[in-house]
Design a protein that fits this description.
four-stranded mixed β-sheet, 15 helices, 432 residues, globular, 13 strands, alpha/beta, Peroxisomal Thiolase, Chain A, domain 1, 19% strand
């Protein structure tokens, strides 16, 4: 994005973003999922691929109200794996769907009930494209997909307990079945996000039996949050520190500073005061996790996982990979989870994990060649093309065929939507 782009100020200063991923009509949640799953499978040993017992997908960008994305990913598996039996399922709950699929996958690996799948490995995928029709909300969009291998001796391990909080709200939802655009109440969504975070954090502390005098700065090397935009994640960390301040867990805070925060009546004002007071702590706990999300934008179900990859990668570059991380996942509507995650540097797959993260980050950071950085005007043009494509889809009859032109920003080996065939069947192919 050039320096004279009109949206630059809002994106960089207001949202904390540097770039955002955009997709033309030849990309959808299926093609993105095919690409990351294909890449993951290509790097696995044959015996691991044969042992895959499930593929679970989290998305809120499905192109079909019945057929799952996971059913299309099965086509990437060898016949001998499919013959053994592979469980599949998509989970839809706004941005929380990826976390729900991850937790379901972990339960599947450890299941011991009669009829449980006998498997040592599984795959969890998140895939979404975030687009908005409100010009003010367009900069909070993005796109991305993540594929994760679950199995034994993993370098990342979830610790018990996981804390949850839910509420019945309409802060963000998609009632128009033929449109990609959501209905959003931005202020309500921010309030719901922070309310869920506070309740999850409290519930996790109670269930875990954490010493009441110990704050999150002594419990976590990094706090990794769902990132609709980067400033939202820093607000989340500020809110967590406010909770600790109210419980007198923050050391070295003067009475004058405590009073200044207490006098900030509105929630937004309190967070602003906390962000100023705890600027160093917030940066230490969250800035490393925001480097990749600042380039991708909002990837809905994948945003927390991009942030996790960013935190691990930044830690490795600095020579101190965080070993204890707190994850906060939020999905509008609303549900949420607070998760304690441990990184085991001596685990067999630790080096492979870091190599995979580095390869993915290299693609995200590329600014020339086959990964093009476009202007704000070009981005709006791409979004307009998606709108026109959706309109053409809506006008299709059962005997029509809709060819989809190949976009200019794809890379060799990535999957794309090639055409929509008769009876509205989508056909995908690999770029060469």
């Amino acid at each position: 994005m050039s320096d004279d782009d009109p949206a630059l100020g809002k994106i960089v200063n207001g949202l904390g973003q540097r770039r955002m991923a955009v997709c033309g009509p030849d990309q959808d949640a299926v093609s993105l999922a095919l690409t990351v799953t294909d890449k993951l499978l290509s790097r696995l040993d044959d015996d691991v691929v044969r042992d895959i017992g499930f593929i679970f997908v989290g998305t809120e960008s499905s192109v079909d109200k019945s057929k799952s994305i996971s059913s299309q990913l099965v086509s990437l598996l060898p016949a001998e794996t499919v013959v053994r039996g592979v469980r599949i399922a998509d989970t839809v709950h706004a941005c929380y769907g990826g976390t729900a699929s991850l937790l379901s996958g972990i339960e599947a690996l450890h299941a011991s009930y009669p009829g449980a799948a006998c498997t040592r490995h599984g795959i969890v995928v998140t895939s979404d494209i975030a687009v908005y029709d409100d010009p003010a909300a367009v900069p909070t969009g993005g796109a991305g997909a993540v594929a994760m291998l679950l199995g034994p001796d993993a370098p990342l391990v979830i610790a018990s307990p996981v804390a949850y909080h839910t509420a019945d709200v309409f802060d963000f939802y998609k009632p128009h079945m033929s449109s990609e655009f959501p209905v959003v109440d931005g202020h309500m969504s921010i309030d719901c996000y922070l309310s869920c975070l506070t309740n999850c954090y409290r519930q996790w502390r109670r269930t875990k039996g954490v010493d009441e005098a110990v704050g999150v700065t002594d419990l976590a090397d990094q706090i990794v949050c769902h990132v609709p935009f980067c400033k939202m994640a820093t607000k989340a960390v500020a809110q967590t520190l406010l909770e600790d301040l109210a419980a007198d867990r923050m050391q070295g805070v003067s009475d004058k500073d405590k009073e200044r925060v207490a006098q900030s009546v509105a929630p937004g004002a309190r967070i602003k005061a906390a962000a100023s007071l705890f600027a160093g702590e917030i940066a230490a706990l969250s800035s490393a996790s925001l480097e990749l999300p600042a380039l991708v934008g909002n990837s809905y179900t994948g945003s927390m996982f991009f942030a996790l990859a960013s935190a691990l990668r930044s830690g490795a570059a600095a020579g101190r990979v965080p070993s204890r991380l707190m994850l906060f996942s939020y999905g509008s509507g609303a549900t949420s989870a607070w998760i304690e995650l441990h990184y085991r540097q001596d685990a067999p797959g630790a080096s492979t994990l870091m190599e995979s993260i580095e390869r993915g980050a290299a693609v995200i950071e590329a600014t020339s060649g086959d990964r093009e950085v476009v202007s704000w005007a070009s981005e709006i043009d791409l979004l307009s093309k998606r709108v026109r494509f959706q309109a053409a889809l809506a006008d299709m009859g059962p005997g029509d065929v809709l060819e989809v032109g190949a976009g200019e920003m794809g890379r060799s080996g990535e999957w794309r939507l090639e055409r929509v065939d008769k009876r509205w069947i989508r056909r995908y192919s690999k770029r060469t």
